[in-house]
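User: Structure please.
Assistant: Input sequence and predicted structure:
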Amino acid sequence: MVVTANVDKIYPNNCHALKKVTTNIKRGEVVVIIGPSGSGKSTFLRTLNQLETITDGDIIVDGVNMYDERTNINKLRENVGMVFQSFNLFPHLTVKENVMLAPLKVSNLPKSEVDTEAQALLKRVGLAEKMDVYPAHLSGGQQQRVAIARALAMKPDMMLFDEPTSALDPEMVGEVLDVMKSLAAEGMTMIVVTHEMGFANEVADRVLFMEEGSLLVDDIPENIFGEVANHPRLQKFLSNIL
C-alpha cells in the first residue's frame, strides 16, 4: 500500500532530517516507528500525506506516486487519516459537530447520513454519551478519542498516528491505545509513531527503528524486543526506556 524509496528530507538550514529511507507497508499492516527524539520519526510520517515535502526519493501510496505532477494530493489525503499529538478539535463545535465537519465540507454527503455515521463512530470510540458536549468539558483521553473518530469519519484506507498519547496523563493513555488496538484488530492499515513499547510489542506487525534520519532496523516485534536486539544502537535505546 505504501512504498518509500530513498526518501531524503533536507531543511533549508541544511538539517538532514531523512536519509535514504526505504520501506514498504502492506494493506492491513500495523507498523510502529520508534527511536529517540529528533530521529526523524514524525517527519517521515508526515511525508506520507505530504504535510512535509521530500527533497529526493519516491513515495507511492496505493499505486499513486505522490510527487507525480498529475497527482491530486488533496484527493489522496482523503484516504489517509491522521491523528496528532495535540487534539486540534474546534472548541466552538460539539463533539459530534467536530466529527461531522469534514464529511460535510469535503465529501458533500447528506447531513442525515453524516449525522448517523458520526454517532456510530462516537459509539465505536466509547463516547456516545458525549456527542453534544464541547471539547473543553472532555478529558485529554476523551478529546484524543474524538480526534480518532474525526479522522475515521472520512473512511480512510490508512491511519497515521503521530505520538497520539504523548500529551496525555498516564492514566488516560490506555483508553486511547484500546481504541487503536480495536482498529488494528479490524484490519486498518496503521503507521504509528510512539514511545509506547508495550503497544508496539503487542500490536505491531513490524517495528521500524530510526535514528538521525536513518532507518536502522525494520523487523518483526519478536526480533526487536527479544532478549538480544539485532542492532547495537537499538539495544542501547531499548535498555534506556524499558
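Strands lie at 2-10, 16-25, 30-34, 56-61, 64-65, 80-83, 158-162, 189-193, 206-211, 214-219.
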